[in-house]
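Recap for those who missed Tuesday's class. We walked through two folding examples back to back. For each one, the amino acid string is listed first and its predicted structure tokens come directly after. Nothing is annotated here on purpose, so try labeling regions yourself before you check the end of the notes.
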Amino acid sequence: MNGATKILDEMNDRSREVFRLVVESYLNTGDPVGSRTLTRTLSEKVSAATIRNVMQDLEYLGLLNSPHVSAGRIPTQMGLRMFVDGLLEVGDLDASDRQKLDDTLQRNSPDVGGMLDRLGSALSGVTHGASLVLTPKHEAAIRHIEFVSLAHDRALVVIVFSDGHVENRLFTPPMGQTPSSMREAANFLNALIEGKTLTEVRRTIQNEIRQRRREIDDLASQMVESGLAVWEGDGEEADRLIVRGRANLLGGEDDDRELERIRTLFDDLERKRDIADFLQLTEEGEGVRIFIGSENKLFSLSGSSLVVSPYMNSDRKIIGAVGVIGPTRLNYGRIVPIVDYTAQLVGRLLSDRS
């Protein structure tokens, strides 16, 4: 039992109800809640002064905070976490929300990326937040690789997979590359990687290259190393994250501090910072997880919350994740079943395709 849950268990019924009403009102309106407001909604008839005393006790415990002098209270991050863990009532998925998500998958597109892109847009539309979809790694065997020179400081590596999928990645080639050294590097790699997946390539190819480096000249060897850097760098992870609905985070915010937090969040999303952590968060446990404020390793500077769930392939292996990010004032009870259903939907669809 964590400390917050212990505090909740030790509260009397009145304190628990006052706390729950403050949090629920804040999540609905975003406004501080005063004692007079609570006198109209509390199940027992007590004075505003009595409620003020209860709210002061909750503030002393670190569960509520008063943003302005003589104003009402709002929940702290600790308070939100305690509410989510101990008092949150998760509703059923609304039929219209389910239909909107299902409709995005009616088109029988062979392009998984395009399908997940549409689903991300639908998820942001349904939740009115920004959606995040981490697409699965492409695990088909590689058929062919080719380097294409675009300029003296830009080149393209083209990877063709056995299932017809093609990936193009830009990178900066080593100085002095020639068409012949690019061809030599591609031929060398093709002899090693044909029939292997990208994951298998990462595991085995470094050793192969060290053992067989003398088979190619220095320029081609540098080119091979550059191609490996493209696969092993951050580019692939960043490309796997689809972000949709950023504009939803701007709705009606006129507080300068809130706008600054949202700008920070936008910067994080644009840079796709710490994207490897996104999947790591979900791999620590099955099901929907909620990260509030500074608990959220990806966006801790933005005062935001992340509701995220992994999805699995037919072998019950986690291969990606879907999530919704927004202010800490999310409607968690509604968004949790939406994210859960979306993750199950993606998992079923990818399992059927495989």
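Example two. Treat it independently of the first, because the proteins are unrelated.
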Amino acid sequence: MKIATYNVNGVNGRLPVLLRWLEEEAPDIVCLQELKAPQEKFPEAPIRDLGYDALWHGQKSWNGVALLSRVGEIHETRRGLPDDPDPSQSRYIEAAVSGILVGGLYLPNGNPRPGPKFEYKLAWFECLIAHAETLLESGLPVVLAGDFNVMPTERDVYKPERWRDDALFAPEVRALYVQLLEQGWADSLRSLHPDATIYTFWDYFRNAFARDAGLRIDQLLLSPVLAGRLVDAGVDRQVRGWAKTSDHAPAWIRLRDH
């Protein structure tokens, strides 16, 4: 089974890119972020035409998350985090799909730092950690996937010295990511490629993609039972080079059957 996460940066504006990627790579389950579309404007029909069921949590102009599946029905279990500090922002959706509990998330950016947006990021991250603990306690096979808006280590960012004051690289945010992993989650890309240079985001400015001046901010975290089934993980970098594409590339994992 192939599970992917992709920040589409506007699901309607980038729809040709999304559909091309779905057709070429055929992931089984997909977590999408940054839909930038209200609930009624999600492009369900063309996605269904490719064989995918869809569940989405939209928001006008900003945010928005969705789950896609071509391996069975999507059974929603949660929309939004418990005790979310701002429930008006659509940032989390969770469902059971083909025997796996999938949590799709879009963690706040948090800039400028310091300030209220950064405080919201920390508060939301703490809510995620609390909910993630209950997911692990359930003993279910769980994947938490999405745009975490954090570069966990210096290996995950081009020229880390340039990011010292940024909310995506703040010590407090990186510490929360470590706290999340210490619950027992496996960072799938790093589990299989501990020393590799891996990026999932390249800015539109300063020719960043051509220079490979990237960040690794899109993650797929696995509960222990799923981590034991992990056989491959990577990034579909080529998608970032397509015309009118997102500034992110899809990240993915492959799991063996039970």
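Answers for example two:
The mean pLDDT is 97.
The domain at 2-255 is CATH 3.60.10.10 (Deoxyribonuclease I; Chain A).
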